[in-house]
Amino acid sequence: MPIDATLPYDESNVFARILRGELPCSKVYEDEHVLAFNDIRPLAPVHILVIPKGAYVSWDDFSERAQPEEIAAFVRAVGRIARDQGLVAPGYRLLANVGGHAGQEVPHLHVHIFGGRELGPMLA
Ligand code: 5GP
User: How far apart are the CA of 30 and the centre of ligand 1, in A?
Assistant: First the structure.
């Protein structure tokens, strides 16, 4: 069920629980501001979720409220993970769903990194 991205942050969402250590994840990267882990239902050979550690619902929320160092860390982490995974030469795709029309399911900002095969057209 897609979320309403205008609602306040819900501390019980699944990524908040992963950040608190209440649920496991297959960690790919972590720093002071960022955690990245493999998607539990991968849609490509590489399917990584990159999330800020702060409580932000969506890209909209993050871009409005996050501190510059959080934004810099997030952007740099996405690029670093792609490089570390060997995705730059073959190519990869970034995706961030926001709200109902995009089908966002988890109300904590996440960027999907897809790679490992030809990814086809941008939208089905
Ligand atoms: P959205 O549709 O919100 O952009 O994507 C949410 C993503 O989170 C989906 O790709 C889904 O498979 C993934 N996901 C949902 N619950 C979990 C979980 O508990 N662990 C992990 N690693 N991924 C999850």
Answer: 18
